[in-house]
Structure formats: C-alpha cells, structure tokens
Design goal:
Blueprint (H helix, E strand, L loop, with lengths): L5 E3 L3 E2 L5 E2 L12 E2 L2 H11 L8 E3 L12 H10 L5 E5 L6 H10 L3 E5 L5 H7 E2 L3 H15 L5 E5 L10 H9 L9
Parallel strand pairs: 1-5, 5-6, 6-7, 7-9
Antiparallel strand pairs: 2-4, 3-8
Length: about 180
C-alpha cells in the first residue's frame, strides 16, 4: 500500500477575491461551498493513522482559503491531531494583522503568498481584482508578526510572459525581507 506524503484538503471552493489570468476560476461550475468543521474533523480522523508518513497538510485548493471563516479552527484541530507542516497558499488580499495572528495562534506552519509582479501594474494585470500595495503590506505585516511564532513564509511568483521581465527586482526585494532561518 502506498501512502502519500502530502494531504491537500480544499476547505473552501468557488469563492475568491481575485480573477487571476492563469486561473480557471472563471470557468468554475461548482457552487461555492465552505467545508464544515465536522466534515473536516471526519477527514482528518480518517487520515490520523498516516500522520507519521504525511509530511504536509495543505488547506487550500481552488479558492481563497482566507475566506473560510473557520480556517483558524481547522488549523487548530489539525495541530491538535498532531499533523505536521500545516500550510495554506493565498493571494493575501485578506491577510490583515488580526487574521495573521489568528492563523499563527492556531498553529499555521507555512504560508505561500502569491505575488506576481514587482510593480503594481504587472501584479494587478495578472491577479485581477487585487490591490498590490495592500497585498505587499499584508505580507510584510505577516512576516513581522510571525517572528514570535516561527512560521515559514514562501513568496510565490508564477513566472510568465507578462511578468518575467520583473523577476530580478522581485527576487531582490523579497530576498531582503524573508528569513531563511525560518525555512523561508
């Protein structure tokens, strides 16, 4: 029997704050849905026997996980159940300070922050519906807050024709702000 090393649970689907050019969200036909705590607990309980093999538990999929009002409780339960490396990927539009603290207090281990440009024009042309300055401020705020928790921050840049010319400046900017001692 092959046991996976990575468990990904989509706790919310069909709901997002952006309309990214590379995302199939606009063709999404499923109705918006937020997984209940009971459903989440049922899934994790079924995977509990495999905790020692599972290296990662990702709580995201096709939507914006920060729009799940129960996300912090799901993270807290996963940590209570001793699942390792609980993480999310987000466009960071909703990553305000109080929500950052809630996620970190719940035990979030990793956050993947999606930023697809060094300039406002490039980022917002790719991640349509986002506000570049707000996203960057939210990420920098999270980085500052996480110093008291130790969570890992990954800044994700989906390199494509529209933004590849900004990669060097993007890399330099974020490299100065992340901290490899946290695993960034």
């Amino acid at each position: 029997m092959i046991i996976p090393e990575h468990l990904q649970i989509e706790t919310i689907n069909g709901v997002c704050t952006a309309r990214c050019t590379m995302c199939a969200f606009k063709s999404w036909t499923r109705k918006p849905y937020i997984m209940t705590q009971d459903e989440f607990k049922t899934i994790l309980t079924k995977f509990a026997p495999y905790r020692s093999t599972l290296k990662y538990l990702s709580l995201f999929g096709f939507s914006e996980p920060l729009l799940d009002p129960g996300l912090k409780d799901k993270i807290r339960f996963a940590k209570f159940m001793a699942f390792r490396s609980v993480g999310i990927a987000t466009n960071c539009t909703e990553l305000v300070a109080w929500k950052s603290r809630e996620l970190l207090d719940a035990g979030l281990d990793t956050i993947i922050c999606s930023v697809d440009g060094f300039t406002k024009e490039t980022h917002e042309s790719i991640r349509v519906g986002t506000n570049f300055e707000k996203v960057v401020d939210n990420i920098l705020g999270f980085i500052s807050i996480r110093r008291h928790y130790g969570a890992k921050v990954i800044i994700r840049f989906v390199r494509q024709q529209a933004n590849q010319h900004e990669w060097g400046k993007f890399y330099d900017f974020w490299w100065e702000r992340i901290d490899p001692s946290y695993g960034d």
